[in-house]
Each structure stands twice: as C-alpha cells, then as structure tokens.
Design brief:
By secondary structure, this protein is mostly beta strands. It has one domain. Helices cover about 0% and strands about 55% of the residues. The protein is built from no helices and 12 strands.
Length: about 120
C-alpha cells in the first residue's frame, strides 16, 4: 500500500492505492499485479483490472472494487486504486469503518504479467 485517503461525500469509505513492482532485464520482465497488461494488436496496448477485493471488519465480509489503474508508468511496475466502502453504505446499521478497529483487506485474482524479448 502506498496511498490511503478517506472519501468525503454521501457514501464515504476509503480509496487505497497499491504499487506493484516486478523484475526486468534485457531479456524480459515479470510483474504480479491486480492489472493484466496486454497488447491488442501491433500498435495497441490495454490494461484490464482483474483483481477482486474483500474487506473484513468485526468478522463480517464486504466487497470492495477497483476504481483506478495506471499503465506501466514505472520502469518496474504499475499502480492500482481500490475503493473500500464504509459499512453503512452496504445496508448495515453498525458503525462505519471510520470507527477504531482492525480492517483486513484481501486482494485475490492477481495476474502474473510476463514479457519476453523475441
């Protein structure tokens, strides 16, 4: 995690940024990320957000979502942004995540991007 910020507004919640870094050399590169970077044809490049996010707070699970992504903006990786909702935006009458406590964020479905020199 490299970034976290409370979201103001009617829904509240948090945005959390993650920075992925991998290995690279003259023969190729690899990167494990929440993003799948791929070519569409000879001149087009795409990035798909594929990871899934769950948030656990006081024994209950909630669904987060990916809300932002970069291309390969760094020589060794990328970054992506998730939105972690406030509990009261998911129909709960309990306290929001703003209250003191421990929140567990699980990111699954990471993708192993590999590139090789031909």
């Amino acid at each position: 995690m490299y970034y976290a910020d409370h979201v103001n507004g009617s829904e509240g919640g948090y945005q959390i940024g993650f920075r992925s870094s991998g290995a690279y050399s003259l023969s190729g590169a690899s990167l494990i990320s929440g993003l799948h970077h791929h070519t569409l044809d000879e001149h087009l490049f795409a990035t798909d957000m594929i990871a899934q996010i769950t948030v656990q707070y006081e024994g209950k699970k909630y669904t987060g979502s990916m809300v932002g992504a970069s291309g390969l903006n760094y020589k060794d990786g990328d970054d992506f942004l998730i939105y972690m909702p406030s509990l009261d935006t998911q129909g709960q009458d309990e306290a929001a995540i703003d209250e003191p406590g421990i929140v567990q964020v699980d990111i699954t479905g990471l993708y192993m991007n590999r590139w090789t020199k031909i």
